Amino acid sequence: MARLPPRALTALLSLTPRVLASPQDRAMTTTATQPAPSTAAAPVPCNNSPDLCSRAYNNITHMGAHDSAFLRDASTSNSVAGNQYYNATIALSAGIRLLQAQVHLSSNNTLELCHTDCRILDAGPLEAWLARIKHWLDANPNDVVTLLLVNSDNQPASSFGTVFDRSGISTYAYTPPSSSGSNQNTITWPTLQALITANTRLITFIASLPSPTTSDYPYLLNEFNHVFETPYNTTSPSSFTCALDRGGNSTSVQTAISAGMLPLLNHFVYLELTPDIWIPAASAVDATNSPSETEVGALGRHLRDCMGEWGNNARVVFVLVDFYDRGPAVGAADRVNGVGEAVGRVREPAVASSRAVRVRGRRRFFGGGAEVVVGVLLGMGWATVVFQERVGVGYWVCLFFAVLGDYLDMEGGREA
Ligand SMILES: *[C@@H]1O[C@H](CO)[C@@H](O)[C@H](O)[C@H]1NC(C)=O
Ligand SMILES: *[C@@H]1O[C@H](CO)[C@@H](O)[C@H](O)[C@H]1NC(C)=O
Ligand SMILES: *[C@@H]1O[C@H](CO)[C@@H](O)[C@H](O)[C@H]1NC(C)=O
Ligand SMILES: *[C@@H]1O[C@H](CO)[C@@H](O)[C@H](O)[C@H]1NC(C)=O
Ligand SMILES: *[C@@H]1O[C@H](CO)[C@@H](O)[C@H](O)[C@H]1NC(C)=O
After folding, report:
1. CATH number of the domain bearing residue 330
2. Domain co-membership, 312 together with 385
3. Do 82 and 217 sit in the same domain of this protein?
4. Are 320 and 386 part of one and the same domain?
5. Range name among 47-51, 231-235, 278-282, 369-373 with the lowest pLDDT average
6. Which residues are near ligand 1 (CB < 6 Å)?
7. Whose CA is nearest to atom 5 of ligand 1?
8. Are residues 231 and 357 in the same domain?
9. Within a domain: residue 111?
10. Per-residue pLDDT reduced to its tens digit, 71-95
11. Which of 1, 150, 260, 337 is 20 to 30 A off residue 390, Cα-Cα?
12. What is the 3-state secondary structure (H, E, C) of the chain?
């Protein structure tokens, strides 16, 4: 190192910040059997581990944040419609490598990140969010990130492509080789190292693109041509399954996997307030996201059960969780990926303590789930009286919850 000319050293530092910042002992022992593809003396981690570089993209479990743009934090007045305590940038730094969100067409004709309806939770324009993720990719040149966007208002690929271009993130977009557009499902996925070397470190799935899809944006992949999902409408931790719910044309998991479809586990629980109103079950999330392989409803067990049930060394490629920082969920992915010690992760910042202390005082008064019950009764009573019909109930109860949630600061972020 010391004999490198200063300019070469600077270049090396800018290329491999993580190697130089992390302990090398384990990395040194692996160089003999797995030669590093880079010119550095020790292997550079890919997605937080040197062991993942040589693995194919579809031979890795990518931990994902469900509804990653919809926050339950100060920016949304702690909306109970929020699914995450921390934003996508913080999630990526903490090890999350799959970001899912819903995209709606807003009243001014822009693609907007909205939860169910832009009146319930509007997280801003898709373009601004993509630009922030691009910024993270700029700063983290050895990481591969996957996006999964729900096309709620059935917008064409060209609308998404325009926004991807304007945000700048399309420079990182990966297009499968000899792709006939987004409808090709049998892809021989490259290794993480190949994606990193080509600097095509962003894989994008959209659910779904209206057909016919244009070939102008072949990196926008139709999710259900490539991915199948387990059920997403779970209301009890004991009812997670490994069954195929949607995606592809197969009726069994085995045929879907042999057809090259990538499995996605939906691993989050809703609290069903009324048949129409479901909110993320935040109070149970420590158990839900636990890496435990024995507890019913735990993330570790769900992963282990599915890989066992599907057989033939099947791998869960994607997982979506709510409140990803709890568990922490990425621990369960590390275990199935065989990653003993992840490198380069940054823990979430703690929530300001003055607010947390104030909130704890209020919580003692209300206790456990009392605020939920009070909110439902008041919100429904109000909506029924004012509107005298059920149609508006869902919307008004959600709004009511947002206000109530702010006051009570239910389940705030990690407290200092
Ligand atoms: C997936 O990666 C593991 C660990 O490196 C390896 O043993 C296995 O053969 C790989 N599977 C495939 C299908 O390449
Ligand atoms: C997340 O928050 C940080 C700190 O406020 C900010 O710099 C970053 O741009 C945010 N990222 C997203 C995706 O909103
Ligand atoms: C469109 O409206 C949304 C709010 O619904 C706002 O966040 C966004 O900045 C607007 N975009 C333009 C281009 O005016
Ligand atoms: C499912 O069938 C439809 C209609 O035949 C076809 O367009 C689509 O590509 C198929 N999807 C997969 C994943 O094979
Ligand atoms: C989830 O959806 C499936 C299929 O549509 C349905 O059979 C099941 O009852 C639903 N579960 C809940 C808890 O609503």
Report:
1. 3.20.20.190
2. no
3. yes
4. no
5. 369-373
6. 55-56, 59
7. 55
8. no
9. yes
10. 999 999 999 999 999 999 999 999 9
11. 150
12. CCCCCHHHHHHHHHHCHHHHHCCCHHHHHHCCCCCCCCCCCCCCCECCEHHHCCCEHHHCCEEEECCCCCECCHHHCCCCCCCECCCHHHHHHCCCCEEEEEEEECCCCCEEEECCCCCCCEEEEHHHHHHHHHHHHHHCCCCCEEEEEEECCCCCHHHHHHHHHHHCHHHHECCCCCCCCCCCCCCCCCEHHHHHHCCCCEEEEEECCCCCCCCCCCCEEEHHHHEEECCCCCCCHHHCCCCCCECCCCCCHHHHHHCCCEEEEECCCEEEEECCEEEECHHHHHHHCCCCCCCCCCHHHHHHHHHHHHCCCCCCCEEEECCCCCCCHHHHHHHHHCCCCCCCCCCCCCECHHHHHHHHHHHHHHCCCHHHHHHHHHHHHHHHHHHCCCCCHHHHHHHHHHHHHHHHCCCCCCEC
Token pair for 220: 């926008």
Does some domain include residue 367? yes
Residues 285 and 380 in one domain: no
Q: Which ligand is nearest to the CA of 122?
A: 3
Burial of 215 (0-12, 13-18, 19+ CB in 10 A): exposed
- Cis peptide bond prior to 177, omega within 30° of 0: no
Q: Are residues 392 and 322 in the same domain?
A: no
12 in a domain, yes or no?
no
Number of structural domains in the chain: 2
Q: Which domain holds residue 244?
A: 50-337
- Is residue 31 a part of any domain in this protein? no
Residues 137, 227 within the same domain: yes
Closest atom of ligand 1 to 55 CA is 2
pTM over 0.90: no
pLDDT at 215: 74
- Shared-domain flag, residues 378 and 316: no
Higher pLDDT, 355 or 19: 355
Q: Does residue 105's CB lie within 6 angstroms of at least one atom of ligand 3?
A: no
* Ligand 2 binding pocket mutation candidate from 67, 68, 76, 90 (most atoms within 8 A of CB): 90
Domain endpoint, select from 290, 306, 337: 337
- Domain boundary residue, one of 309, 337, 365: 337
Q: Give the ligand 2 atom nearest the CA of 88.
A: 13
